[in-house]
Amino acid sequence: MKRVLYIALITVIVLVIAGAAALQSVAVDTWLFKQFVSRGIDGTDAQLADADELSVLLVGTGTPLPDKSRAGPSTMIAAGSHLYLVDAGVDAARNLQLWKVPMDKIEAILITHLHSDHIGGLAEIRLQSWVAGRKTPLKVYGPPGIERVVAGFNEAYAIDDSYRVKHHGAAMLPPAAAPLEAVVVAMPNGKNAP
Fold it and tell me: Which one of 83, 150, 177, 190 has the fewest CB atoms closer than 10 angstroms to its CB?
């Protein structure tokens, strides 16, 4: 009996070591990454809007004050198959993914004003939409100053982008698609947003 237990223990240890080694393999890691993206992030199960419908989803309704039950301000607008976000509060990407929204289908983000609670989730939306398969830079519309915000996020994540491209390959994560692209919306009478 002891011999059987000893052999079983050795077998389990060998399997654990082999499994850990397999997870370190680039091929296995890439396969797992593709499975995660295709089953979890791209949201093929999401029911958004019919071709002639307009849907609004309150992604986050929080304030600058911490609240574990509310994400930062963000609203998704689905016009048929076209997806847009208004503001990008913290945890907006998490909620969108939990609801199986196809992150790569987000066409643009409109930032209403440059307060931290409205832009705090930009980096995660940028990353998750790229990882899900976005093929072009994600446009971010906003008031004057949005170009500085977008440039800052792009610079802050440039090293991470290069790591991900090196690890997963440019075919899976095209470097040109990673960045955000600022589009300044001129305010009436030359005024700045609050």
Answer: 190
